[in-house]
Amino acid sequence: MILVGENLNIMSKTLGPALRERRAEPVIAMAEAEDKADIDYLDLNIGPARKSGDEFMAWVVSTVQGVTKKPLSLDTTNPVAMEAGLKVCQNKTLINSISLQPDRLQAELPLVSKYNADMIGLLWE
Fold this sequence. Notes:
β3 (72-76), α4 and β4 (93-98) form a beta-alpha-beta unit. Strands 1-2-3-4-5 form a five-stranded parallel β-sheet, covered by helices on one side. The protein has helices at residues 16-20, 24-36, 53-65, 79-88, 102-114, and strands spanning 4-9, 41-47, 72-76, 93-98, 118-121. It is globular. α3 (53-65) runs parallel beside α4. By secondary structure, it is of the alpha/beta class. It is 43% helix and 22% strand. The protein contains five helices and five strands.
């Protein structure tokens, strides 16, 4: 069994605003709490992140890696943001997730081998 902490999520009513405003303190506090919770991966969900998603994902990854050595699960539907996060990840990374939609599959599947990442594959289009 693999445990993924899913609290660092742009849709969260408590952490969403901190993530959007790039306020590191609440993000760091949650990352530290998840680190202590004996999970396997910290999920960083930035949603579709259409505006400056690459910079946003790189910021979130760098902020969280500053307080934990746990592997990260990168969670976005934006392949440019996904790659930006993979570039700055220092540990083994999980791509959460890749669906069978042809455009997403073609854009995201090559990132798995390019960055030696694990992935969650969704078996629906």
